[in-house]
Design a protein that fits this description.
Strands 2-3-1-4 form a 4-stranded antiparallel β-sheet, with helices on both faces. Helix 1 packs antiparallel against helix 2. The protein has one domain: Transposase IS200-like (Alpha-Beta Plaits), CATH 3.30.70. By secondary structure, it is of the alpha+beta class. It is globular. It contains 8 helices and 4 strands. The longest helix has 19 residues.
């Protein structure tokens, strides 16, 4: 006897975990992985404006932000435990501006954004490096400090900062060492482990397929 099960057309979304203790790593991508339809300086200005709005209205604390040609990486903390409200408005407002400015017919983003809670400081550091290295990994630049659409520029040169960042204690503790570390190419398996972990609600490093141990230890950095 063969039993057949009908799957629902739409799977319910996992309910967001609202908390204020740990930062979130947040990503969102353009629909069909298309590029933004307007020049990157204009896209950057739109995102900076809306990050300022989110900071003022929802008290979003921004640790870092990297804008790529068809997606973004954001690390942020929500003292008011309002990440869903904050990101809903941020996605809506940026999408509306990008659609209008680029004369798009379709929506900008491919569905919802992804949030990962970084419940350990080392998880935060690995997301921090993974995100800031994204332009280097994509072959756009050779060093992290060369990419113009990154909050790291404002961290290194505060006069150029257009995003309301909270103090970057990682960089300020050792500027030269931090840049050296960010520019060190990570082990590919460990970098993939971070990418995998950032897709979970709580960061969880990828495990070896053979012995079921994490590829990246809790106290390890990429």
């Amino acid at each position: 006897m063969v039993l057949e099960f009908a799957l629902p057309l739409f799977m319910p979304r996992i309910k967001a975990i609202l908390q204020s203790k740990y930062p979130y790593n947040i990503t969102a991508r353009c629909i069909n992985r298309e590029w933004f339809q307007i020049p990157m300086p204009e896209v950057w200005e739109i995102f900076c404006t809306e990050l300022i709005h989110s900071n003022k209205k929802y008290e979003l604390q921004i640790h870092s932000f990297v804008l790529m040609s068809n997606h973004f990486h954001l690390i942020a903390t929500t003292p008011r435990s309002n990440i869903s409200q904050c990101m809903h408005q941020f996605m809506y407002r940026t999408s509306k501006k990008l659609t209008r400015t680029g004369n798009r017919i379709n929506q900008t983003y491919s569905g919802r954004h992804y949030k990962c809670i970084l419940q350990h400081h080392n998880y935060y550091l690995n997301a921090y490096k993974y995100n800031y290295r994204n332009p280097v990994s994509a072959g756009i630049c050779l060093r992290v400090e060369e990419y113009p659409y990154s909050s790291l520029i404002g961290v290194i040169h505060p006069a150029l900062c257009c995003i309301p960042l909270i103090d970057d204690l990682t960089y300020s503790a050792d500027p030269i060492g931090t840049l050296r570390w960010l520019n060190e190419k990570p082990d590919p398996a460990k970098e993939e482990s971070v990418r995998y972990g950032l897709k979970r609600q709580y960061f969880q490093a990828k495990k070896h397929s053979q012995h079921n141990r994490s590829i990246l230890g809790e106290k390890e950095h990429i």
